[in-house]
Design brief:
The complex is a heterodimer of chains A (309) and B (330). Chain A is mainly α. Helices cover 68% and strands 0% of the residues of chain A. The chains are: A mainly alpha (309), B mainly alpha (330). Chain B: This is ABC transporter permease.
Chain lengths: 309, 330
C-alpha cells in the first residue's frame, strides 16, 4: 500500500539575502542612486566612445570659452573640452574610490576580526593603535606625505614614475588613502565579532573541530557581509571626496591625468570670472558621493535584521 | 581626572615622535638640500663655499643623525628659521598664523554645536515629518559635498553675482583677513574682520553641523525609547520636562564623543577653507611652505596641528566626564 506524503503548503521561502535585496529594491533613494552610479560608471568606461573631444586636446582659440554647441560645458584655461574631461576624469576618481575602498575594507576586516576574535592583549594593542590613527590630523598629513612623495627622487618612487608615467600619482594617492582609511571598518567588524563570537553556532562550529581560521573566515566573516558592504560603499564616497580635496590643494593626482578633483585646482581664482569651470566637476563629485552615501544608507537598512519595512 | 589628563598628554609624545620621524625621513628623500636652494641664483659662490656651508649646517651627516639634532632642538622650542620669511619658524607661526586658525576653528566648533544640537532634537521629536526629511536630506548633502567646492561657489555667489544683482547692497569680500585700512576703533575693526570671517566660518561649519545634528538625532531617539523616559511620562510629568530635563541630559553624552572624533576633520576643513578664502592661517602656511620647500615651517605646522587635535580631543573627553557623572577617569 502506498501513501503519498501530503504536499507541502505552497509558501514561497526567501533566503536572508533575498529578503535584503527585496528591501533594498523598495528603498527609493538607494535605487535612484544605484541607477546614477551605473550611469556614471558607463560614461567612465565608454569615455573614448562618447567624449566629443580628446580630453587633452588644446584649442588655442578657445581659452576659457563659455559653453557652446560643440563644447556643451565650455572650455578650460587651455581650451580643453570640459565635458570630455569630466568623462575621463570620472575614470580616475572612480578607480581611486573603488581601490581605496577595497583595500581599506580588506585590511579593516582582517584587523577587526583579529581584535574581536582573539581579544585580550591583541585587542587592546589593535584598539590603541586605531585610537592613535584616529587622533592624527589626517588631511594635513596626507597632503604633506603626498607632496613629499611627488617631489622625491627615492629609488622606489623613481621606479614607479618610470613604469607608470603620469599615473604614478594615482598609485601614491591610493596607497596614502588606504593607510589612513581602514580604521572605520576595523572598528565596525570588531564590534560585530564581539557580538557574534559567543553565539551557539560558533560554539557548534568549534565543537565540530573548526580551527580559529575557519571560524573567523567561514563562520564570522560571511555573517558580517552586510556591514562590510555598507562600510565599503561609504569608503568609496570618502575616498572620492578625499582625492578631490587633495587634488584641489595641488597635492593629489597630477596633470595631465584629469580627475574631478584636479579640475578644481585653482578653482577659487577661476570662479570669479569663469564660474562654469569649477561648477560642473564639483557637481559630479557631489552627485556621485551623494549617490554612494544614499546607497550605503539603503544597504544598511536592507541588511539590518531588525528592519522589516 | 588630572591624572587622566596627564596620561593623555603623555600619550601625545609617541604621536609627535612618529609624525616628525616620518615627515623628516620623507624630507630627506627630497632632491637637493637647503644649501642648493640657498645658493640658487648666486653665481659668485665657489664649490669650497658650498662644501663649507654643507659642513656648517651638518648636511653631510646621515638623516637619522640630523633628525636627532632636530629633535633635541625642537624639545627646547627651537624649530629653526623660515627660509621664506627670514624669521624663526615659531615666531612666524605663533604670531602670524596660529591666531588666525584659532579664530576660525574655535568659533566654528562652538557655533556649529549650538546650531546642530537644537536641530538634532527637533529632527528627533518630529521624526518622519516633512522637516525631519528636509534636515536629513541637508545632512546627506553636507556629508557628500566637497566643502571647498561649496566655498568656491559661495565665493561666486556673494562676491560676484549678488553684488552685481543688488548693486553692491549684498556683498562679501572674496578673501583675506580684513580690509587693508580698516577704520580705527574696536568696533569698526571687528565689524570689518567679521565681514571677512563670515564666509569661511559658515563653510567650515557646514559639515560639522550635519555630523553633530545626525548624531544628536539618533542619540535623542535612542534615549526617548528607554524605560526611564516611559516612567517619567507615566508619572504624569509634562512632555516638555520629560524631553528637555530627563531625555536631553542623557542624549547629550554621546555627542561629546562625536565632537572629539570630528576634531581632525575640523583642522582638515580649516586647511581647505583657508585656501579657498586666502585666509592666512596655519593650513595655508603648511601648503605654501611645502610648495617652497621651507621644511622647518612644514614640521612646525604639523607638530602644532597634531598637538591641537589631541588637546581639543582631550577637552572633549574631560567634558564627557562633566556631563556624565557615571564616567570617572582614573
Amino acid at each position: 500500500m502506498t501513501t503519498t506524503a501530503p504536499a507541502p503548503p505552497a509558501v514561497k521561502s526567501y533566503s536572508a539575502l533575498q529578503m535584503s535585496m527585496r528591501r533594498l529594491v523598495r528603498h527609493k533613494a538607494a535605487m535612484i542612486s544605484l541607477a546614477f552610479i551605473v550611469l556614471v560608471l558607463l560614461t567612465a568606461i565608454f569615455a573614448p566612445l562618447i567624449a566629443p573631444h580628446d580630453p587633452n586636446a588644446q584649442d588655442l582659440g578657445g581659452f576659457f570659452a563659455p559653453p557652446s554647441a560643440s563644447y556643451p560645458l565650455g572650455q578650460d584655461e587651455l581650451g580643453r573640452d570640459l565635458l570630455s574631461r569630466i568623462f575621463y576624469g570620472g575614470r580616475i576618481s572612480l578607480v581611486v574610490g573603488f581601490s581605496v575602498a577595497i583595500i581599506s575594507v580588506l585590511v579593516g576586516t582582517l584587523v577587526g576580526l583579529m581584535a574581536g576574535y582573539f581579544g585580550g592583549l591583541t585587542d587592546s594593542a589593535i584598539s590603541r593603535f586605531i585610537e592613535f590613527m584616529l587622533s592624527l590630523p589626517t588631511l594635513p598629513l596626507q597632503l604633506t606625505i603626498s607632496g613629499l612623495f611627488a617631489a622625491s627622487d627615492a629609488p622606489f618612487i623613481a621606479n614607479l614614475r618610470q613604469n607608470l608615467g603620469s599615473s604614478a600619482s594615482v598609485v601614491i594617492i591610493i596607497t596614502i588613502f588606504s593607510v589612513f582609511g581602514w580604521m572605520g571598518t576595523a572598528r565596525l567588524v570588531r564590534g560585530e565579532v564581539l557580538r557574534l563570537k559567543n553565539l551557539e553556532y560558533v560554539d557548534a562550529a568549534r565543537a565540530l573541530g573548526a580551527n580559529n581560521n575557519r571560524v573567523m573566515w567561514r563562520h564570522l566573516a560571511p555573517n558580517m557581509l552586510g556591514i562590510i558592504v555598507v562600510s565599503a560603499t561609504i569608503d568609496i564616497a570618502g575616498a572620492i571626496l578625499g582625492e578631490a580635496a587633495l587634488s584641489f590643494l595641488g597635492f593629489g593626482i597630477q596633470p595631465p591625468v584629469s580627475t574631478w578633483g584636479n579640475m578644481l585646482s585653482n578653482a577659487q581664482e577661476v570662479v570669479l570670472s569663469y564660474p562654469w569651470l569649477p561648477f560642473y566637476p564639483g557637481l559630479m563629485i557631489l552627485f556621485t558621493v551623494l549617490a554612494f552615501n544614499f546607497l550605503g544608507d539603503g544597504l544598511r537598512d536592507a541588511f539590518d535584521p531588525k528592519g522589516r519595512r | 581626572m588630572a591624572m587622566y589628563a596627564l596620561r593623555r598628554i603623555l600619550q601625545m609624545i609617541p604621536l609627535l615622535l612618529l609624525i616628525s620621524l616620518v615627515i623628516f625621513g620623507l624630507t630627506a628623500l627630497q632632491p637637493g638640500d637647503p644649501v642648493d636652494q640657498l645658493i640658487f641664483g648666486n653665481p659668485r659662490i665657489t664649490p669650497e663655499d658650498i662644501a663649507r656651508l654643507r659642513e656648517a649646517y651638518g648636511l653631510n651627516t646621515p638623516w637619522p643623525e640630523r633628525y636627532w639634532t632636530w629633535l633635541l632642538r625642537a624639545f627646547h622650542g627651537e624649530f629653526g628659521y623660515s627660509r621664506d620669511f627670514g624669521i624663526p619658524a615659531t615666531q612666524f607661526i605663533f604670531t602670524q598664523r596660529l591666531p588666525n586658525t584659532l579664530l576660525l576653528t574655535i568659533p566654528a566648533l562652538v557655533i556649529s554645536t549650538l546650531i546642530a544640537v537644537p536641530l538634532g532634537i527637533y529632527s528627533a521629536i518630529r521624526q518622519y515629518t516633512f522637516m525631519d526629511y528636509v534636515l536629513t536630506f541637508f545632512s546627506f548633502v553636507a556629508f557628500s559635498a566637497p566643502v571647498f567646492w561649496i566655498g568656491v561657489m559661495a565665493l561666486y555667489l556673494f562676491a560676484v553675482l549678488l553684488p552685481q544683482a543688488t548693486n553692491g547692497a549684498i556683498s562679501l569680500p572674496p578673501g583675506g583677513l580684513g580690509s587693508l585700512s580698516p577704520e580705527d576703533g574696536f568696533w569698526p575693526f571687528w565689524l570689518d574682520r567679521l565681514k571677512y570671517l563670515i564666509m569661511p566660518l559658515s563653510i567650515l561649519m557646514f559639515r560639522e553641523i550635519a555630523v553633530t545634528m545626525r548624531f544628536m538625532r539618533s542619540s535623542f531617539l535612542e534615549v526617548i525609547g528607554q524605560d526611564f523616559v516611559r516612567t517619567a511620562k507615566a508619572k504624569g510629568l509634562p512632555n516638555r520636562s520629560v524631553l528637555f530635563k530627563h531625555a536631553l541630559r542623557n542624549a547629550l553624552i554621546p555627542i561629546v564623543t562625536i565632537l572629539g572624533l570630528s576634531i581632525p576633520g575640523l583642522f582638515g576643513g580649516a586647511v581647505l577653507t583657508e585656501t579657498v578664502f586666502s585666509w592666512p592661517g596655519m593650513g595655508r602656511a603648511l601648503i605654501d611652505s611645502l610648495v617652497s620647500k621651507d621644511f622647518n615651517v612644514v614640521m612646525l605646522c604639523l607638530m602644532l596641528l597634531a598637538i591641537l587635535t589631541v588637546v581639543f580631543q582631550l577637552i572633549a573627553d574631560l567634558a564627557y566626564a562633566l556631563v556624565d557623572p557615571r564616567i570617572r577617569y582614573s
